[in-house]
Structure formats: structure tokens, C-alpha cells
Amino acid sequence: MTATAVLPLKRFDAAKQRLAGGIEAERRRELAGAMVADVLEAIGEARAIDRLIVVTGEPLAQELAAAADAEVVADPEDAGHVEAALAGIARAEVEGAERVVLLAGDCPLLDPRELDRLLTGVPGSYVGIVPDRHGTGTNALLLSPPGAIVPAFGEGSRDRHVEAARAAGVPFGIEELPSIELDLDTPGDVIALTRELAKQPKRARRTAKALGI
Prior knowledge:
8 helices
């Protein structure tokens, strides 16, 4: 089975506030757009993804999504990450999706081959949790079926997703996908991403340019 990818996105002006001490507002906005463009490109190259839904109230993100042939679900209220994810899941279910993978717009190293591996051989009932590099957050969440559990993103979400799957009686697994583990929230993440991009000059070209690499 193929899957529907759901990408919930904040408005770029509100993104990456924890980087405010080191990166000025206009550069943060540029960086947010560059990361989203790289993520969209990677999702588009994944063979196991048959549909991409982007939920956002950000005009530039809507433009980028449309250029990537993604379906755009407007989020004019910017209700929050979980609410945007639920809106994307609901749209996917209406369109007959049997499973969805919720992805993050700030994981520009996303490797489509790893995404394909995540989606290979997934049973009809399963929750796949991809943690961040610190092991506490969730950078991707595979739900089969789409309503297997209610997503609970934010600090400590890895354990919340584990508990939700246990409570629902749904088989689950912690999936190790290196290209998805590095998101961009803190100055330390910027340093780590810069190092990775320096090692892999052909990866995430737009993000690298926005970071001045």
C-alpha cells in the first residue's frame, strides 16, 4: 500500500522563535521557506507516497505546495500543530487513505529512500514513531489506519505517542530514520545541521544556501 503524507506548517513569521537570538526575523522566514521546499522535494521523490497534503495558513508555503503538486488545506486560524495535523488526516480519510505519515517541515535532510523504508511492509494496524535526535520529540508519525491514535506533538511527544498506541491496543514501533531525526529548533540544531550539510554538499541545497553554506 502507498500512503498519504501530511505536512502541517506554521506561518513562517511565527516559525523558529527559539532561533531569534541568533538569526534575524527575515532570515528565519527565508530559512523556514527553504527547509519546506527541500522537504517537499524529498517527499515528491518517495515512491511509497501517492498523495501529499499540506495544511497551512502561510501564503508562501501554499505557493510552494502548489508548485510541488500537493493538495493545500487552508489553516487561516493557525490553530496549532496538532489541529493542523488532524485537519490533514481528516482530508486524507475523506479521499480514502488507508494510512498517513505526518512529517515535519523543518527536517530538510529528509531522504526519500528512508521514507520508503518506513512505509515498506506496514501492517493494517500500526503506529510508527520517528523520534528527534534527542529521543524525546516526534519528527514523523506513521498511522495505519489514519485514525489509529490522535497525534500529540510537542515536547515529550515520543512517550505520549507510545502511551496512546498502548492505550488503543495498536502495535507500534520506534523507527530510527537518521535523515528525519535532525529538525531545526535551537541554535545547537543549527550547528548540527550546518555540520551535516558541509559533509553532504548535494543535500538540502535551498537550506544550505539560506544558512550561507
